[in-house]
Design a protein that fits this description.
The protein is of the alpha+beta class and about 220 residues long. It has one domain: 4-Layer Sandwich (Metallo-beta-lactamase, Chain A), CATH 3.60.15.10. It is built from 6 helices and 18 strands. It has a 7-stranded mixed β-sheet, with no helix packed on it. It has a 6-stranded mixed β-sheet with strand order 10-11-12-13-16-18, with no helix packed on it. A 3-stranded antiparallel β-sheet has the order 3-4-17, with no helix packed on it. The radius of gyration is 16 Å and the shape is globular.
Length: about 220
């Protein structure tokens, strides 16, 4: 069963690509009625509930690791238009053909601010949207997440991620002012974290210190 996070934001059931790692997708239901799914579900278990909430007009992937055969099922069931990072098109189109590709920072026609944040992978991208009750939601993909030890942590994978690019991306994210931060995959109990009175800038800067290279930490 899906979980209501905010009046316009729903979390799908959890999916575990491998033991210890959990991921959710998130359905944003803005006033326009053009529902947006961030990330991707692992199965079709939530499809009926999503349809009752108005379906999916657009789906945004933060990076290639969210691509799977379920993308084609989402497009077929809801007619969703797939938005993906341009640098990772080849990996994603193995599962579904994207309708929109992005590589520059901009606010699109659906109110989604697309913010390229390379580092975790070359095409990693974050999304900033205006939520209900004057909230701001930041979808960080795997660029940064709150670890189960309470430390904001960079999504650095040895031999895959680019430490310097990731540090620069986190510096950029530190300039934003979200009050709800939502990662894609995470270790621990939750991927959506209300900040309350905690400023976001120091959280993003803390994540930089978790990148295991001295050069990245000086970025």
């Amino acid at each position: 069963m899906m979980k209501k996070i905010r009046k316009d934001l729903w979390e799908t059931q959890s999916y575990s690509p491998f033991p210890g790692l959990t991921t959710h997708a998130y359905l944003w239901t803005p006033p326009s009625g053009q529902n947006v799914l961030f990330y991707s579900t692992g199965t079709d278990d939530d499809f009926d509930e999503i349809e009752n909430l108005g379906g999916i007009a657009h789906q945004y992937l933060s990076h290639q690791d969210e691509a799977s055969p379920v993308l084609a099922h989402i497009a077929q069931r809801f007619g969703a238009r797939l938005h993906t990072p341009a640098p990772e098109m080849d990996a994603i189109r193995r599962f579904a053909e994207p309708h929109v590709q992005f590589e520059h920072r901009h606010v699109d026609d659906h109110g989604v601010e697309v913010i390229p944040t390379p580092g975790h992978t070359p095409g990693s991208t974050c999304f900033l949207v205006p939520g209900a009750d004057a909230s701001i939601y930041l979808f960080t993909g795997d660029t940064v997440f709150l670890a189960d030890n309470g430390v904001w942590t960079a999504g650095f994978i040895p031999d895959i991620s680019d430490a310097d690019a990731l540090a620069s991306s986190l510096k950029l994210l530190s300039t934003l002012t979200p009050d709800l931060v939502i990662s894609s995959a995470f270790f621990g109990d939750a991927g959506a974290h209300p900040l309350g009175d905690t400023p976001w800038g120091p959280c993003a800067e803390q994540a930089i210190t978790t990148i295991p290279t001295s050069q990245a930490r000086r970025a």
